[in-house]
Each structure stands twice: as structure tokens, then as C-alpha cells.
């Protein structure tokens, strides 16, 4: 099972996404509640994918940039998806340049999170 780092500051959202992924055996989810914790985790361990909240201060963007630049132990080409309350066209363009696979606009349905996690981890969706 692929190891996915989930960066989400809000408990209910983080808990829901992580628990669904675990119950459906989509990924081995590791949770971070803030940017600094996620960065430490990425600098001390290898993950197969990243699902990161953009954050109010765009910390998620900074984290994606660090992964893509090789500043973490992850493969710089690791699959990445981001979650955000909303994005402008410029930020979407930056994420495309950084090869972010999916952008999920909050609020999103659990089904969307399941599909994104399955895509990131390469897991088959349950029938």
C-alpha cells in the first residue's frame, strides 16, 4: 500500500479523508496538521504521494515547490493533489507548472476525495 502524506489543518476534514482512505484500503495515510510538521515529515521519511491543503498563507504551495525542487526525501515527481477554498487563475497556472495532478475545491464530496486518493496511490476503487 502506498504511503500518502495528508496535510490538512482542520480536524474533521483530515479525519474524514484519512478514515475513508484507511477503511477502503486506498493508502497508508500519514497526517500532518500544519506546514511545518508536513515539511519535517517529508524531510525525514519517503512518501509515495502528497495531498495538501493550500492554506491561508499558501503554505501548501510552498510545500509543493519544496517537493518539486528536491528539498525533501520524496521523488520530486511524486503525485500531488491540493485542496483549497478557492483559487485564482494565476495560482492554478502555478500548480499546473508544478505538475499538480488534481485541485479539489472545498467543500468537496467524500467521493471526490476517494477518487483523488485512489488516483494518487494507484489503488483500485472498490466496486
TrEMBL record:
* Xref: SMART domains: REC
InterPro entries the record matches: CheY-like_superfamily (IPR011006), Sig_transdc_resp-reg_receiver (IPR001789)
Indicate whether Transmembrane helix appears among the record's keywords. Answer: no
Q: Where is the signal peptide?
A: none
**Modified-residue entries (4-aspartylphosphate), positions:** 53
* The Response regulatory domain, residue ranges: 3-121
PROSITE patterns with a match to the protein in the record: RESPONSE_REGULATORY
Q: Name one Pfam family in it.
A: Response_reg
Keyword annotations? Phosphoprotein
Q: What name appears for this protein in its UniProt entry?
A: Response regulator
Amino acid at each position: 500500500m502506498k504511503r500518502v502524506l495528508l496535510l490538512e489543518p482542520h480536524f474533521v476534514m483530515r479525519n474524514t479523508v484519512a478514515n475513508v482512505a484507511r477503511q477502503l484500503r486506498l493508502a497508508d495515510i500519514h497526517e500532518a496538521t500544519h506546514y511545518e510538521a508536513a515539511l519535517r515529515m517529508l524531510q525525514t521519511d519517503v512518501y509515495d504521494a502528497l495531498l495538501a491543503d493550500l492554506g491561508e498563507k499558501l503554505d501548501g504551495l510552498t510545500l509543493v515547490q519544496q517537493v518539486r525542487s528536491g528539498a525533501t526525501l520524496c521523488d520530486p515527481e511524486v503525485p500531488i493533489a491540493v485542496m483549497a477554498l478557492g483559487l485564482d487563475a494565476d495560482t492554478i497556472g502555478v500548480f499546473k507548472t508544478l505538475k499538480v495532478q488534481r485541485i479539489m475545491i472545498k467543500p468537496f464530496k467524500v467521493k471526490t476525495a476517494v477518487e483523488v486518493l485512489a488516483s494518487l496511490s494507484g489503488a483500485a476503487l472498490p466496486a
